[in-house]
């Protein structure tokens, strides 16, 4: 019997976000044996489904079902579990019940790390709200008096913010570049599930290539595809590198 | 008949905060004749009472009672009044009724200054929420149309943010160092009321000594113990020094 | 038949704000044929009507009526439409219904640009709340699934933050200075409608003159009166100048 | 007789910089009738000519000659004049004589705007040094007592910082996106003059496409290729847009 | 025999700076018995004497003499001593000899506080250079091994940055407002010595009035004229206020 | 035959700096088989040798010799090599020759990482100057045309800034905490070589303990002593943790 598998948690406002911004990290850690769980807070049904609404007479439920199906396929292709909160988008309205559920997920998954949105985003208020929520739940999960259980030990995992659409406008300062070369093919194929957003396939392929070249420059080691992250808390290390 | 005594207000999320972060200022100003009132928003019953929850079968009410007793003893040793809001912690949930009460307290105490938490704290969402609340109430208290009374005159006091646990991660930029040498013994004895957090006794003793040395360097005057604060609003002065 | 007139939207917490901070821009764009609509979220009845409350026995409704009348006169003199939300001030409490109405206004007015408050203001929590609200509504207004209508096309307008009372304390960084020479007389006459705040007439006249001199220095072109704004999103241009 | 042509000045540390970072702006404004002058401070002979140094026995003069020829061809293809300062690179060492010449160029060209490097760049100290130099000369050029001439009138032009290789690490905050669709073919063909840096052809093509998509999102107007700039001084405008 | 008089040091790039930006503080502290010494690094002969250069045939020496005379009169009216370094302006070029002299002045004056320029100023490179120089000398003055003298004791004084012409563009964040009501008449009369800059008389009168009103708001105490300063180092205090 | 040993480079303004700020990292990496080389730019002879200057008649050469001896002993106890540049302190004056030597050292040592000072320090101008110098040399060392050698391959190492005396005043934002438990005894014993600065022994012991407790909180793993660092460039990683 070996050590228990490591795990990771991804808190995403809408379905596209975990694909464009963190699909490489998800697929890569799955390949390395991590259990990865995605919490998708809303279906992006109002604000990120322009194409669906072009069909006259389409209903909100139809749009949500369509986006849910896509999100499930995407999660599956990346190798991750997914849970939906159906909080509504534009604006995201997160409830106390959702917060409780989110805390339970932290405690159940016991993630080695958490991925979520940048703290600011003037283009999309759902993103910082998702980030705030993910971080609030993370802190509550470590509170001994929240559903107390003297047997449980738990410590709060590191948080990495994934890249927003327009990084400089969101005060996003990447301090980690993840080499996703091994996971790239999977990430790119997952883009194609999001069939209505073809323009973003190329956009985020370019982002991956440019972050990859930056990764090569910063490390002096060859790499092609990268994802940029901003670590929120200090890394605690046994050796500098 | 002399001038009325000066007064100060401390808005603290949890019981430990006013001790570790502002205990010196409280004791010092009490020694100088100030009336000091502490508003303690929550008992820290869920998030800051790990030791209490190690006892199997302990109830929330027992934990709260225990923390309340400690907080009362600590306030008393420092020479301050204390009022509890019992807003719940992790997360702190402040209501309209609490806001009204907080405004009344501002108007009743008429503080010369207010002490509260830093504006950011990625480790503890209750802290910035307490700070936001203290500042919102401060502004409302000066609104002529809030419980109007043409006889009353009132102006908003300066606000000093006290030091968070990991200052740089909270964007805390101290611009005031208070010499607490005279109050140190009282502050240190108050630590000992918080019997379950012995590791923090030494931590915050070291903080006080290091802030003291920085105070000495910045002023050229000998001092041993200090507390660091961040003034939110400009100081208005009659002479530079 | 010419092109439809351009339009602009102003989201103001209280009546004075759109006069002191954006009165020049409003009057100037009206002169240039813009339809300008002001949304005034509260009457400033509690926090910005000191003089009214000095009258013993005055009621909240009387104060609101008085401020509403002033605001209507001011909007009219500037040449703008005005709509009141009566959200209450100190603190401003914006509801879901108000958000829906605000989104409808965006879609109805289709503004070329939006003016609102700075994002931070430690002196007045209503101001950043108004700014947050204006920006949230702006993003929702462009969501295809919010009251979907396949016929509608809409894109989010640029946002300019107007100058707060103490700019540096609000992290206000002006990157646009608007020459309001042509509109100055109108702006100044509008000040006089706010009869109880005479000290601010001179204050904001000085602000306009100093921003005007800064505008002259930055452009090398003579101008006398200016208003400072902070553009939130990048300007997209066909030529640099 | 029409008005005199407008003009622009580009201050570039090394030959590649004005191509990758500002080639679109240069070609576009040339198309619009501007005189554009590039000042190329160094040949990038030591720090940006890896391929040249791979040839055993190559001399510094040979490398400089090769890079100069490339830079001249690139300037010519973009339609701009170019002047070399040969200040040496890694590190750039700018002299008083060069500063005097730079001031003379400002006064001779009388640019409508200036393009130069970002103010910070931890990857390349020559870039902020070039920016500092360009800005120092700009200020001196307007000093009445520098080579005084009562006939001359001159005012300092706006400065736009062009995009560094890793924008977030350089605190680069773009607030202007220039649509370079019309100039793109020229810019791209100019890349090909820099034959040894093929990997950057694709990198900066991706940058242009992604800035173009951002420009489309920010403006609601279709565009394909963009260049991002950071305006240093406030824009002074007659109308908001 | 009383205590020795207190003293203050002002390090100004050009003659106008100490008048517009710090004239109130100088006059006020002189009234309170301080010895105030101004170090004026350059005469502003090239960059801040436009009017003088309008006279055909005027020489550099004549311009410098004229500005020196003005500066002496201004210092005298404010009640301060003045020493000129004649370092040249636009750009200021400070030498090792000047640094040595500056250090000697610190040791001789033993100032209670130092006033100098803001740390950034994109409009005027001489200003941050003067600030850097003032601060470098301040640190050297306290070095035991610089012209060692075991008898001497000396500690570095607090530094206050005075207000630049366009504060937000210089990242100036005032945290001190000095009430200069008592000194205002003297400051205003000193403006009139700078006869060629009449437009600035009114500009800086407006600045003083607006800072005064801000001072009143921040303190709740009536005042009319203010000067804004940014404290560089933490204040070390015995009581909060 | 194993892989060549790893190595690290430390660029320190004065002798104390590498002990107080980086002594743990040095000793720890030596224990792990790294070659560590310290470049000590000045002896701190003027600004950091107060005690030495208390002896009447002591000469500069004597002070320097004394400090050099201490620095050699300290380096030796930590297990590192040391090279002195004797650049002079207060102010540090680094020459072109020193820069060339520094570049040669980079190429000879080929460090896996570099440790140096924070980028800002209003208390001590030598510190940011040392940091600037270390970073400039790092970039030049990778320039193919600086002492070209087609055989050489070299890429620039990551840079970690060590903790200044008053971190918040220096804009120091630690994003790495190094566990130095294994090296602590060595670090502490090295303090004792700096016999004249006993007050700093305790100060930096407290810093290490508090950074250790923060490390424990951030990681959830027990540790006692820590050193805080700020990584300048993004970490490039194969897995998030």
At the first level of CATH, what is the class of chain A? Answer: Alpha Beta
Q: Give the strand order of the largest sheet of chain A, numbering strands 1, 2, ... along the chain.
A: 3-2-1-4-5-7-6
CATH-defined fold name of chain A: Rossmann fold
Given helix and strand content, the structural type of chain A is alpha/beta
Shape of chain A: globular
Largest interface: A-F, 38 and 38 residues
Distance between the termini of chain A: 32 Å
How many discrete domains of chain A? 1
Q: How many strands appear in the DSSP assignment of chain A?
A: 8
Order of helices and strands of chain A: EHHEHHEHEHEEHHEE
Unreliable residue stretches of chain A: none
Q: What is the averaged pLDDT score of chain A?
A: 96
Strand content of chain A: 15-25%
Helical content of chain A, roughly?
40-55%
What is the architecture of chain A at the second tier of CATH? 3-Layer(aba) Sandwich
Our count of helices of chain A gives: 8
- Regarding quaternary structure, how should these chains be classified? homohexamer
Q: How much is the radius of gyration of chain A in Å?
A: 18 Å
Q: Biggest sheet of chain A, in brief?
A: 7 strands, mixed
The CATH homologous superfamily of chain A: LmbE-like
Characterization of the model:
Chain A is α/β, with parallel strands linked by helices. Chain A has a single domain (7-230), classed as LmbE-like (Rossmann fold, 3-Layer(aba) Sandwich). Helix content of chain A is 41%, strand content 15%. Chain A has helices spanning 15-20, 23-31, 50-53, 60-78, 96-109, 126-141, 184-191, 198-219, and strands at residues 7-12, 35-40, 81-84, 113-116, 159-162, 176-179, 226-231, 235-237. The first copy, chain A, has a 7-stranded mixed β-sheet, sandwiched between helices. In chain A, helix 4 packs antiparallel against helix 7. Chains in contact: A-B, A-C, A-D, A-F, B-C, B-E, B-F, C-D, C-E, D-E, D-F, E-F. Chains A and F meet through helix 2, strand 6, helix 8, strand 7 and strand 8 of A and helix 2, strand 6, helix 8, strand 7 and strand 8 of F. Strand 8 of chain B pairs parallel with strand 6 of chain E.
């Amino acid at each position: 019997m070996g050590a228990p598998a490591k795990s990771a948690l991804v808190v995403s406002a809408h379905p596209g976000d975990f694909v464009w911004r963190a699909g490489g990290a998800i697929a890569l850690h799955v390949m390395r044996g991590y259990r990865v769980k995605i919490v998708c807070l809303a279906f992006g049904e109002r604000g990120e489904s322009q194409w669906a609404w072009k069909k006259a007479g389409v209903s909100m439920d139809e749009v949500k079902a369509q986006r849910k199906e896509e999100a499930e396929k995407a999660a599956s292709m990346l190798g991750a579990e997914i849970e939906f909160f159906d909080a509504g988008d534009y604006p995201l309205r997160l409830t106390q019940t959702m917060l409780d559920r989110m805390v339970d997920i932290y405690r159940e998954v016991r993630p080695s790390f958490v991925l979520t949105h940048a703290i600011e985003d003037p283009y999309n208020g759902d993103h910082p709200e998702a980030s705030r929520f993910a971080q609030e739940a993370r802190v509550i999960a470590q509170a001994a008096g929240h559903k107390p259980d003297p047997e449980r030990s738990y410590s709060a995992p590191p948080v990495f913010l994934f890249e927003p659409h327009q990084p400089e406008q969101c005060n996003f300062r990447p301090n980690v570049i993840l080499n996703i070369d091994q996971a790239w093919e999977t990430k790119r194929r997952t883009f194609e599930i999001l069939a209505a957003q073809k323009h973003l396939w190329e956009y985020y392929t370019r982002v991956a290539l440019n972050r990859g070249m930056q990764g090569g420059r910063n490390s002096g080691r060859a790499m092609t595809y990268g994802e940029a992250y901003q670590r929120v808390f200090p890394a605690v290390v046994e050796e500098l590198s």
